[in-house]
């Protein structure tokens, strides 16, 4: 298993490579468009990394119709259109507290090939395609140029209906990516996506992080597993919650946090994202508080660091206090914002998840 503690570069902040196309997301409820925004896992992840001042490179393709201003310029494919997803949401909330969605890819930009990747070396690589744009050979190239590769399983198991583009999920073992699992460090899956792989088998090869909305997440590695506590959130839009979680996770790993602390940071950013529609805008005061808490946590853990990669997966002393500190930073910022703005008084949901109804669902 590749662990987060592996380092080969003599630089103060490891570099991150993000691979996955930008998208245009259209949110539809009761046949009415309720939101349109920049989408794609790469955009949500870059938003977290940029907010936390983590240097990163991003490889994404867009078409001639791309209309957003972004910090990381995409590869423009003039003969193509930008990938577009339509997300159809239920009007109600189910017994499990989730709003299901039906996701359709209505347009797809070009695939990302190994030749599109930069001629450089990175400490962390993130394969986060959402529209089937990452090829097996592209992931293999990422493994070659990155010390640790983190993969969102949606980049591996999504399939798309030939008629209307409805997103379907296939068994991981049926894909060409399966043979590469022993060479990656982390595989992120949602609780629904976990039904399409054998977690007990895959955890022998790499760390599997299972996100479960309001219930936080679970970290599974070859020698054990651990549940990581969630943060309360007032849900507006679940889109991108898992992506922001992934951005928070890699931010923690870049900063040298143990995996449980990094996953906790992931839960934190996931909770922030669902409170806004589309790509979130993080308050600068909150981000500074989070940076300060992460730095304090990093210094605290340096005193108990040991030269054992497996210790990176054990919950270090003070983990619960770190959770409380992050929660307090969020609460203080929200109270400050409420004092400076008029509240609408509208009731919001107190849960979040990324539940998506799929055409094929296997036990």
What does this structure look like?
The model is unreliable at 2-12, 93-98 and 343-363 (pLDDT under 50). The chain starts with 15 loop residues before the first strand and ends in a 23-residue tail after the last helix. It is globular and about 55 Å long. The chain has eight helices and 16 strands. α7 (284-302) packs antiparallel against α8 (319-340). The chain has helices at residues 41-51, 136-145, 154-157, 199-202, 241-254, 259-273, 284-302, 319-340, and strands spanning 16-19, 23-29, 32-39, 56-59, 61-63, 75-77, 83-89, 101-107, 122-127, 146-152, 158-160, 167-169, 186-190, 207-211, 217-221, 224-228. The strands form four sheets. Strands 4-1-9-10-13-14-15-16 form an eight-stranded mixed sheet, with helices on both faces. Strands 3-2-7-8 form a four-stranded mixed sheet. A two-stranded parallel sheet has the order 5-6. With 363 residues, it is an alpha/beta fold. The chain has one domain (17-301): UDP-N-acetylmuramoyl-L-alanine:D-glutamate ligase, CATH 3.40.1190. Residues 208-278 form the Carbohydrate kinase PfkB domain. InterPro entries: Carboh/pur_kinase_PfkB_CS (IPR002173), PfkB_Carbo_kinase (IPR050306), PfkB_dom (IPR011611), Ribokinase-like (IPR029056). It holds the Pfam family PfkB. GO terms for molecular function: kinase activity. Belongs to the carbohydrate kinase PfkB family.
